[in-house]
Amino acid sequence: MSFNSHPQAPDLLARLGRRYVRVLQALVLFCRRFAVPVIIAALTLAGGAAYYAATHFAITTDTSQILSRDLPFQRLQERLEQAFPQLKDTAVVVIQGDTGDLAGNAASRLTDWLLTRRSDIESVYDPGGGEFFRKNALLYLDVPSQAQPLMSQVAQDPSLPRLLSVLKQGLQAQGTQGPHLGGLASIFDQLGRTLDGQRAGRFYAVPWDELISGTDGAEDARLRFIIVKPRPRFDRLQPAAAALAAIREGIAALKLDAAHGVEARITGSAALDNDQLGTVSRDAGLSTVLSLSLVLILLIVGLRSGWQVLFTLIALFIGLSWTAAFALYVVGPLNLISIAFAVLFIGLGVDFGIQFCMRYQEECRDQRTSAEALRRTVLGIGGSLTLAAAAAALSFYSFVPTHYAGIVDLGIISGTSMLLALFTSVTVLPALLALRPKMVQRRVSLPLSRHVHFAHPRVIVTGFVALLAASLPLILHTRFDFNPLHLQNRNSEAVRTLEFLLRHGRSSPYEIEALEPDLARADDAARRLDGLKVVASAITLSSFVPDHQDEKLDIIQQLNLLMPPFTVAPSAASAPPPRIAEALDQFRDALGRFLREHPQDALAEPARRLFGAVTVYLSQFATNPEALTTLQSRIMDGLRDQLSTLSLALQARRVTLQDLPPSLRDRYLAPNGQARLEILPAQNLTDNVKMRDFVEAVQARVPEVAGAPVMLVEGGRTVVQAFIEASLISVALITLLLTLVLRNLVDVLMVLTPLASAAALAVAAMTYFDVSFSLANIIVLPLIIGLGVAFGIYLVMRWRSGAEVGRLMRTSTPAAVLFSALTTMSSFGSLAVAGDPGISALGKTLSLGLAAVLLSILVLLPALLMLRRPRQLVLENVES
Questions:
Q1: Which residues, other chains included, contact 403 with Cβ-Cβ below 8 Å and sequence gap of 6+?
Q2: Distances (CA, A) of 643 to 133, 561, 573, 632
Q3: 452 falls in which pLDDT band (50, 70, 90)?
Q4: What's residue 246's pLDDT?
Q5: For residue 759, which of 739, 789, 734, 718 has the smallest C-alpha distance?
Q6: What is the pLDDT of residue 180?
Q7: Which CATH superfamily is domain 11-62+273-482+713-879 in?
Q8: DSSP secondary structure string, 755-785?
Q9: Which of 41, 85, 373, 681 is deepest in the core (most CB within 10 A)?
Q10: pLDDT value of position 613
């Protein structure tokens, strides 16, 4: 078959087609004649390519790199990263304590420990930690503590007996007209929880920081964060792995676990990328092996020749190694999308081998010599293979003009791989086939019912029209999920921790950022965001200068008169167990007297619960020294920490911008004076609608912003636009190519109509099976176009060569299409079992798409071809 098989083809195209096929024949026969040198050369090049790929393999999970850096929000993000490089690629250690004291102590100890691991860690930042915030803690409180009188009374003897003595005095004063000890109800509740917790074998400590600050029970008060910037090791597949291992080593060494009232978890971009790199690297190997296994099985069933299966796989491996080397040399580090090129090549590249081998078998069945069979194979299918490869390559290359850089990489790699697969099919494969010229050839045809296709074509077309009409509601409900968090393993520690933070707007890592020329303009932008319901807070460096300092300093001065700093400096005194047991017994008696004398007092119910807790505790542990010492530690350690902090905080002085610590200033004010504005959401941004509302509301008042939410929302729009552009470009280029080659508009529509059907059915199937479009699988429709047009070309070109539909469906061509589609589907299906949700979604979507292609090509297309010929002629041909 040649390009000029249709009588309407012009002379110029006819001459070019004949010349091209003659060149192709000469190339195939040359490779057959010099088979051994050709094979040796191909294997040598493949070995070199494989070595290059193995030594230069690299993956990046930076989602900012999958979009063009020329986009406005990308340029702003780049300027932010240049001004504040310490904010990029960080790990966040989230420490949640049973009390704020425990969380703060754990954060301080882990920070100090990590600072000793400079070989793996570049910097460590403890927000709210350090001497500055301890010294000025009272300036950052909204109200003075109601527990401070209690603190002054236990400062010189911070033991449990002394505390219980002070509480007894408070009980005695409760029924009088004099001054009362504030906060007794909350203190009683916390003491009861501590007693019950130890008795039940649970760790619990009195949260004195919450009692003193008035944030009793607030979850945010028990959270602390450490921001760690790893020192990346780019010679490893997971550059941040050493730093993350160091963090986990520190957590284990310092016993930051539930048994000690603390939970430490790791998230942040570095941790998320590290987890995804590990998952993707494992999945890539598993998917490739599974893909090859399934392809091997189907090749054996389809080709029914062990040698041809082997030769097809050898040609496939050679092409794959060349493609891998090309990808790493031209594109560089692969991204989370372009890493799928291997499976795509296996699925698509094997198509050419199957088509070539099955046509070769058909020609050999007529007892022709090997050379003649190869010549006729090229004559019959060379043009179709070339046109299919060109169409598939165009469908991939259609991504190149878009702003979706990640898909651009995949388009360049996979588009070129189609040409490499064609080249190996007409060079390496004929050379390999020449090694076994006398193989037994078995007849392979497509087991389809001729009556369905040949007697009722209008019924089939009408059925497809009805099916497409029924699919329309599903198509209209197709959705696009732009959030890459949904493409990661939801069970990983980093993802679960990130989702936990997203539920807390005040600590959400999904903040919007703006870069202003100076602090004054950053403050002005922050004020413009006042009143927005979707904004929890807008933070600049000025936000860390305490407000109402005059009023607070007056209160601090008054506290200094009542309890000078030296009087609240805690001692290391601790009471012996017998004294603790005695104090508990006396305190229980005091509670009993209070309840008898004041049964209706507001404090009666908390006192009654505490009376019961002390009674049960003493019955179990009154003679257990270790339990009594532990109880004292759990009640008093936090109070000692607060006394130490208060002693330092009573020395507070007025705070200005210049007094803020450098580690804080550097995160909001760049050396050149540029200021960073940080905007935190008031809602849970795991909901894409809420994220879009947050971004749009902020942009309405501060147009030039960046940050993760902006990149996700604006990036999602860019991806959808790229998808539309790529689809239109792909359809336009393929239509132009088909028009130039086929020179018949109706025949072009014969190829394209099943593609439209397949695309519509694939989208409907995605909605039905609850598979949404995402950053990973939005490439599917352009790929369906490339795949479908290749299969359609094989059938239409064979039909144009003179084979009526009935005879055509009994040739090797539809059988080759079927097995080629099944191998491609199995290859793509191997992605569906991947642990990475993004790759899995890509595999599921590609499988659904290819199933739709197969249905349209092997059922709808033959029916359409039937309607192009007189019914009587077709029936005569079928009967013959």
A1: 67, 68, 70, 71, 718, 721, 722
A2: 15, 16, 13, 16
A3: very low
A4: 93
A5: 789
A6: 53
A7: Multidrug efflux transporter AcrB transmembrane domain (1.20.1640.10)
A8: HHHHHHHHHHHHHHTT--EETTTTTHHHHHH
A9: 681
A10: 92
Tokens 């050709």, located at residue: 38
The helix (H) or strand (E) run that includes residue 95 is strand 91-97
Give CA separation, 136 vs 130, 499, 647, in Å: 11, 32, 11
What pTM value is reported for the model?
0.75
By the 8 A CB rule, do 219 and 650 touch?
no
Q: Which two tokens stand for residue 537?
A: 């807070």
Q: Is 130 left (phi over 0), alpha (psi -120 to 50) or beta?
A: left
**Residue in the block written with tokens 């404090």:** 603
How far is residue 97's CA from residue 207's CA, in Å, rounded to a whole number?
10
CA 210 to chain centre: 37
pLDDT tens per residue, range 139-158 = 887 654 545 566 667 777 78
Name the residue ranges covered by the structural domains of the chain.
Answer: 11-62+273-482+713-879
Most confident region among 183-187, 467-471, 808-812 by mean pLDDT: 467-471
Please enumerate in sequence order all residues whose Cβ is within 8 A of that of 546, keeping only pairs 6 or more positions apart, or say none.
136, 139, 140, 552, 655
> What does the alpha-carbon distance between residue 94 and residue 236 come to, in Å, rounded to a whole number?
26
In terms of Cα–Cα distance, which of 426, 329, 327 is closest to 383? 426
- Taking CB atoms within 8 Å and a gap of at least 24, the contacts of 601-604 are 601/174, 601/175, 602/185, 603/171, 603/174, 603/184, 603/185, 603/188
Bridge partners of residue 634, in order along the sequence: none
Which string of DSSP letters, residue by residue, matches 185-254? Answer: HHHHHHHHHHHHHHHTT------HHHHHHT-TT-GGGGEEEEEEEE---TTSSSTTHHHHHHHHHHHHHT
The 10s digit of each residue's pLDDT in 368-402 is: 678 888 888 888 888 888 988 888 888 888 888 88
Rounded to whole angstroms, how far apart are CA atoms 655 and 551? 13
Q: What is the four-CA torsion angle of 347, 349, 353, 356, rounded to 10 degrees?
A: 110
Average confidence score pLDDT of the chain = 82
**CA distances to 384, 744, 840 from 825, in Å:** 21, 31, 14
CA 338/CA 484 separation, integer angstroms: 15
Confidence of residue 27 (pLDDT cuts 50, 70, 90): very high
> Environment class of residue 6 by beta-carbon count within 10 Å: exposed (0-12), middle (13-18) or buried (19+)?
middle
d(CA 498, CA 711): 17
Residue 871 pLDDT class (50, 70, 90 cuts): very low
Q: Residue 327 carries which DSSP code? A: I
